[in-house]
Amino acid sequence: MRSRFAAPSARLALAATAAVALTATATATATATATADSRSTTVRACATKDLSFKISLKTQAGGYFLVTAKAKSGVTCYLEGVFPSASFGSSADTEVAPAEHAVSDRVTLSGSTAAYAGINPKTTNDDHGREFDFLHLSVAGDETNAVTLALPETTTVDRPEATNWHADPADAVPFSN
Fold first, then answer.
1. What H or E segment, with its residue span, contains residue 5?
2. Rounded to an integer, what distance in angstroms lies between the CA atom of residue 81 and that of residue 163?
3. Least packed by Cβ within 10 Å: which of 20, 85, 142, 156?
């Protein structure tokens, strides 16, 4: 009879030991996962203040401005593949429109990595337009923090368009229709 009572006790002890072992394993796994998650870096979207900008004049495709954006020192962020928010003046007719009809790949900026957007200041084939010396530029959605950049030369503006941000400057050429 003694062996009959010993068997359930042994089973109970074995079950209790297994439960403790499973709990310890689950706790160790959860701790390891939490530690790994706390060390991972999540790249955030760029704000205008995170970037430095440079504008250069290009002659390809009838002439356009190539905007180069780089993350400031110590910043890692990304630009969505949409066109920048830009205008040559405060009037609505000087705001750039999209030159592309789809979203491009996201561009992650850090160190010397750059993103490029091309701005065609004049998409019309006539002598109309207004002259400007400056471009107001920001990351889309961050218009209240726009920066004003001097253009390489005075330019005539009429129905301006901009490409999306791209990792390759060759992809940022705003070809006319």
1. helix 2-39
2. 9
3. 20
